[in-house]
């Protein structure tokens, strides 16, 4: 995808929207990291810093009412689908004003109101579940499309293969997006995978086209996702997209990522999607002050969300027993 | 009234709910064109068409994932796992996803779905197609667990399961498919969490589930004939929610408790019932509760060995008689 092609299809307004989405995710996750270091975010967090172009580009190609399924590295995707930052941050802090009242946490975020039907922490589960949402939309004739994100590591689990075959034979309106950040936790994916491109090179086995894109180029992500989403909405069935990207940090908070070659890390930091995209838009004539203003506005928003989250109370003890069942409670006997 | 086999009751129960609510869809391996490997779903494809009754590949994770995603977006799916043993290859969906997502989201999403399967021994299929695994499901918060013993209950409890807003694991018993009884015509709708007293007697309380219910009733006949012992037989029907009040009240009447379980010994459902009864009705008990179970072994295939493994009317009757008469 060349810049000339992209710029003809990307309005200045859309470009700025893509930048804003990525920058919001970046600033949100940097703050989440800071709060983790202050021991305010407990447990673990899996940050997608460096991978924002995938979530933002795909989200821009989706419509209201579409469904999103993501991984435990899912903060970016909720931000990109419009989940308000304060309840999201409060959930990471385990507060009662959290998105899930502190019962889910970083790895299990759900925002049903915005169609984000889950962050899945068991690798690959979301692919088969996303099929169900797509089947439901197909059955109801609602026109909704389901997008399912997963990592390169998920391509070696059985559910990935079951899901692709199933989506194809039922012609489901689902778009599978592999965020290939090159590492399956601590292990380089190409050292434990039979093919070079773990998702795209498997597509042929399911009669799907091989699509590999630069996952750090938000416009390429958006344009590719748009085609796939439009195809699904028109009844053309599933697609699988492999977006190659890189996480700037380790797998999780416990991981300093010493297994990575510093030269490789440096190379990918050069390909950071945010400065790259800002530079591209400036080259197209957008005034640099626009980005300073956007970043400052997001900074204020993240500060406010942080304060609101920190001001939240701890979940009340009663929450322990709410919503095991649809009647709101936890009773299993009379 | 008409005579209904347990086998035909499976299709009747599903059809009853599919006629009533077009959000109810049904999927599984060989369930549509073939009518089920045990012929339990014959006629559903013909009546409801290929959009609502769907054959799937041998992909148990894909089956349960599809049911889960559909349930959280407005449908009320019934998914079939052919043999309950196969839950082992898709247990993530059951134990981690379907059961927990409502709680983790604190109520943002619901899972009105039913997973039905063929459970239990008696057909000489050996260790990987004969297990009783209702206790696996019972151990997971967020799942309702049902195991009918009669054709009427297959229909009525399926209706209750489909209409429930929570996920229900529905254990049909393979060895009961040929059993039959007269059932009312028209719609049958039961209630989850209600045990039924199948036989009343003043001397001993036997609590059983699924195929162990008819065996316990046969044991009660032996006890009456041979020892003059009158036994009450309680059909638990639903492990979650559990009707402890009926069980406690029937134990109070006789001062005894015998559970008859097909699952292997350790952590079987009867252990939980014994625990509840001893904690809450200690004073009402005349002696220690006794569990009659399959031993803690994998199930063998040979007729003679499988027959030795499962609780039989003879073993149940002898155990009860020995406990009561010494």
From TrEMBL, chain A:
Any single GO BP term: pyruvate decarboxylation to acetyl-CoA
Stored Gene3D superfamilies: 3.40.50.970
The protein's required cofactors: thiamine diphosphate
UniProt keywords, alphabetically: Oxidoreductase, Pyruvate, Thiamine pyrophosphate
Highest taxon of source: Bacteria
GO MF terms, alphabetically ordered: magnesium ion binding; pyruvate dehydrogenase (acetyl-transferring) activity
Domain Dehydrogenase E1 component: 21-317
InterPro entries linked to this entry: DH_E1 (IPR001017), PDH_E1_Alpha_Subunit (IPR050642), THDP-binding (IPR029061)
One of the Pfam families matching this protein, by short name: E1_dh
Keyword Oxidoreductase: yes
Protein's recorded name: Pyruvate dehydrogenase E1 component alpha subunit
Automatic annotation (TrEMBL), chain B:
Keyword tags: Oxidoreductase, Pyruvate, Thiamine pyrophosphate
GO molecular function terms attached to this record: magnesium ion binding; oxidoreductase activity
Domain of life per record: Bacteria
Leader sequence segment: none
Matching CDD domains: TPP_PYR_E1-PDHc-beta_like
Residue ranges of domain Transketolase-like pyrimidine-binding in the record: 4-179
Name of the protein in its database record: Pyruvate dehydrogenase E1 component beta subunit
